[in-house]
Write a structure and sequence with these properties.
Distance between the termini: 45 Å
Number of domains: 2
Number of helices: 12
Order of helices and strands: HEEHEEEEHHHEEEHEHEHHEHEEHEHE
CATH superfamily of the largest domain: Fervidobacterium nodosum Rt17-B1 like
Radius of gyration: 24 Å
Strand order of the largest sheet: 1-2-3-4-5-6
Helix content: 25-40%
InterPro entries: Glyco_hydro/deAcase_b/a-brl, NODB_dom, Polysacc_deacetylase_ArnD
GO molecular function: hydrolase activity, acting on carbon-nitrogen (but not peptide) bonds
Largest sheet: 6 strands, mixed
Structural class: alpha/beta
CATH class of the largest domain: Alpha Beta
Strand content: 15-25%
Keywords: Signal
Number of strands: 16
Protein name: Polysaccharide deacetylase family protein
CATH architecture of the largest domain: 2-Layer Sandwich
Shape: elongated
Length: 453
């Protein structure tokens, strides 16, 4: 089925922007260059923005290399800006009331002492004509922090596109007849071979497949492709040394800035219970600071966690569990479920369920839907879906005092309060809430302990 013209234009713009921002970033030299021999301890950043007109979720990696990080941040910001422009144009043209969505995810494909390779997956939903999925691959040279273009990787005097084309077709033919229609459409042109990634095995070529959600992946062995690379990049295929898992278990220190609190001074009134719930974590610093505040007030809360972030910070997840708090499922990478198939939704939930149970050793029954967005009507949900009853809509733009005041003005027995543990400002908001809730005789409990839940 042919895409509407706006989607075709948007796809071209996104593809062009993916190439242009890499070129622009490479024109500027990095102030802090990565050490060639260093293996990066990669962390994850998550940005989630919810507005009436659109939702944006962006996951991206962060490294010890400032130049690499800045290139990635510039890429994310450019994708957001372009999406907002196209969303506005679409709203003006179609007058639709459905929220649009931009979702950016990533996978680290390869890393050794010299190279860091990451693939970004961009999903755009403008409400009409289907969902667009695009990708951007960055092959970073750790030595200078540059994202290398095809022209920089391959020798000038070799027709590398022709070679890649021939080898890719051979591999796809060997794989079987299911690729026959796709093979017929391939041409020895640069636009067919822009999406390549350096790996320990060789060059990984991504071929878009309109019939499937994921592109076809073809590995060209390093014994072949190394002849095409410039001499300074022959080390691209060196395997990384055996990684040592770093759980970031550094001592956080025992100092606590929060005032002493005695539960006996604030006796709870019968039936006055509320739940504090935290979405989008875990965060290696913010979540721990929230735990410290909760401990000061002898309060227990519920944390709804994104599976992808759990994989990066399992030690924080274990700490939440060991300190007596409740853990729930917030899907794998926080997409809007209403645009997804039942199979995709099941994958989002079951993958998160699996990693949470592996990390905590406990079964996780609670589920919170990203943006509160319901799946299709015929979807059979897994787990107990937990809504919220109180949410300060402009919390990101308000100081903690204003957020706490807004929430407290709406509180009643069995309220479920929605907060987020990615932003440092939430720590102060939590302290203000607990101080006032206990002063009013409320008890703060995990959401599953509420009488109406």
């Amino acid at each position: 089925m042919r895409q509407p013209i706006i989607y075709t234009i948007l796809f071209v713009l996104l593809t062009a922007s993916g190439c242009s921002f890499i070129a622009n970033a490479n024109e500027e030299s990095g102030k802090k260059k990565g050490k060639q021999a260093a293996m990066y301890d990669v962390s994850i950043e998550t940005e989630i923005n919810e507005f009436e007109e659109y939702h944006m979720t962006a996951h991206y990696p962060q490294t010890p290399n400032n130049q690499i990080d800045q290139t990635i941040i510039d890429y994310v910001n450019q994708q957001k800006a372009l999406f907002k422009q196209e969303s506005y144009k679409s709203k003006q043209k179609n007058n639709g009331d459905q929220a649009h969505e931009l979702h950016i995810d990533f996978e680290v494909i390869h890393q050794n002492q010299r190279f860091f390779v990451v693939r970004f997956i961009e999903t755009i939903d403008l409400g009409r004509g289907g969902v667009i999925t695009n990708q951007t691959i960055m092959n970073f040279d750790k030595k200078n922090g540059k994202a290398l273009s095809m022209e920089e990787l391959f020798k000038e005097d070799i027709y590398y596109v022709d070679r890649l084309h021939d080898w890719t077709k051979e591999k796809m033919i060997d794989a079987g007849e299911e690729n026959s229609k796709l093979i017929d459409k391939l041409e020895a042109k640069i636009e067919f071979y822009e999406d390549i990634a350096l790996t320990g095995e060789g060059v990984l070529v991504f071929i878009d497949d309109p019939a499937n959600e994921e592109p076809v992946r073809v590995i060209i062995e390093k014994s072949k492709v190394s002849k095409l690379l410039r001499s300074e990049y022959k080390g691209a295929f060196q395997e990384a040394p055996e990684a040592v898992t770093n759980l970031n278990s550094e001592d956080q220190g025992s100092d606590n800035k929060y005032q002493d609190f005695t539960l006996d001074d604030h006796l709870h009134e019968e039936g006055k219970e509320v739940a504090l719930t935290f979405d989008d974590g875990p965060h290696p610093e913010v979540t721990r600071q929230i735990l410290d505040v909760l401990d000061q007030y002898e309060a227990k809360a519920s944390f709804f966690m994104i599976g992808k972030r759990v994989g990066y910070y399992p030690e924080v997840v274990r700490e939440v569990s060991e300190r007596g708090h409740e853990i729930g499922n917030h899907t794998w990478n926080h997409p809007r479920l209403g645009r997804m198939s039942d199979e995709q939704i099941n994958q989002q939930i079951s993958s998160t369920q699996t990693i949470l149970e592996q990390v905590t050793g406990q079964k996780v029954d609670l589920l919170r839907l990203p943006f509160g967005n319901l799946p299709s009507a015929n979807y059979q949900e897994e787990g107990h879906v937990v809504p919220w009853t109180i949410y300060s809509e402009k919390w990101e733009d308000l100081p903690p005092e204003a957020v706490a005041e807004d929430i407290l003005s709406k509180v009643e027995g069995d309220s479920i309060i929605l907060l987020h543990d990615l932003q440092l400002s939430t720590v102060e908001t939590v302290e203000l809430l607990l101080e006032n809730l206990y002063a009013k005789g409320y008890k703060v409990v995990p959401v599953s302990h509420l009488s109406d839940h």
